[in-house]
Amino acid sequence: MNKIALVVGASGITGSNLAEKLIANGWTTYGLARNPQKAIDSLIPVAANLLDIESLQISLTNINPTHVFITSWMRNETEAENIRVNSLMVRNLLNALSPKKSVKHVALVTGLKHYLGPFEAYAQAGTLPETPVREEHPRLNIENFYYAQEDEVYAAAERNDFTWSIHRPHTVIGKAVGNMMNLGTTLAVYATICKETGRAFHFPGSGAQWNGLSDVTDARLLAEHLIWASTTEAARNQAFNVANGDVFRWSWLWKQLANWFGIEPVGFDGTIHPLEPEIAGDGPVWAEIAAKYSLKEPDLNRMASAWHTDLDLGRPIEVMSDMSKSRKLGFTVYQDTRDSFFDLFEKLRAEKLIP
């Protein structure tokens, strides 16, 4: 079968890594975004607004994908608005593709907020799950835009008779600029600022995160998982956790990251020191660093997403994902987490995004 992929959100961490992997595997690959990715060789850009059904239909006129990968979402002020906007994006996309009858599989990327709750009630008392989180955990009795997105996929699959997969990564580590959830690059920027200014590289999170077990998801591994689930009979019509396969404690990893940058780490001292206010006034500092080292991106806000890093590292419990379901069905790809960060830092340095 001729495999034609439509990657929605191709300019983000997940979408760009997925597009590169699909192209390397011989897929015809379209990358849909408001500002399409043009840096990936052989990726066919599609400029479209998922909230405008008419313009979306026009943009997709001559595109007949067999596989659709939805890796994009839009942040809003409230969870009610998140639900309205993000479900509409999925619904518009699948409605626009419906008359073509070309789609065989739709993969939706969500995340661990499926288990932890949305940003407004993130990991608060009463919504804390048992860990490691497992796919069979029931939905929380709380509004969550991930549930609304899933329901749109389920409804369209029943209508158009395609298969589906839901992918729930933990924090995704990979390179992207202008991404709103980018812990790896955010920590690289923070470490760079600390090194240049002589400030302490202070762990910004909670004691539970500092001392507890955690895991993350390399964007390259997530790409492999998306392709595997969309082409494997046994993986059809199922939801999956996706993580690297190892676990770590931030009390260990923080020292590893500091050593890479040649700075001294400062661990959890009994108080959470959020990163967002720590670097809120560092826009001019980053601009000076960018000028000093001829970096490509002088805008701190396009490099760092401290709000999301604070949410991840400020959790009141340790959080990790059970991967047994994928393992039993044959997905055995593994990624060392320390290398996920180090590979990212090397790539950011090579592409002149950090010194």
TrEMBL record:
**Pfam families given for it?**
PRISE
The record ties this protein, via InterPro entries, to: NAD(P)-bd_dom_sf, PRISE-like_Rossmann-fold
Note the superkingdom of the native organism. Answer: Bacteria
Q: Tell me which residues make up the PRISE-like Rossmann-fold domain.
A: 65-355
| CDD domains for the chain | 5beta-POR_like_SDR_a (cd08948)
Q: What is the protein's name according to its record?
A: SDR family oxidoreductase
Q: Which organism is it from?
A: Mucilaginibacter robiniae
